Fold this sequence. Notes:
The chain is an all-alpha fold. The chain is built from five helices and no strands. The chain has one domain.
Amino acid sequence: MSEIFYLFLDVFFSIIESIITAIDFAQVTAFDSFGNWNVLPDQILYILYKLNIAQCLTMLAAACLIRLTLNLIPAAFTRV
């Protein structure tokens, strides 16, 4: 019985792998320009540096990650 399950799982992962390999990520510019801050003028970079925008975005991302991790705990264990 488990062999049939693993067979279907293997077919499913093979389909997912073929879909991912078919996507050309070189054409996607969002991944390429995400960390490209040097195209901004110096004045804007100075203000972003003084406002600690990078630190703020890091803290927001960490908070979202912590929240998503805590949501994995089922509600049945947290109710009194």
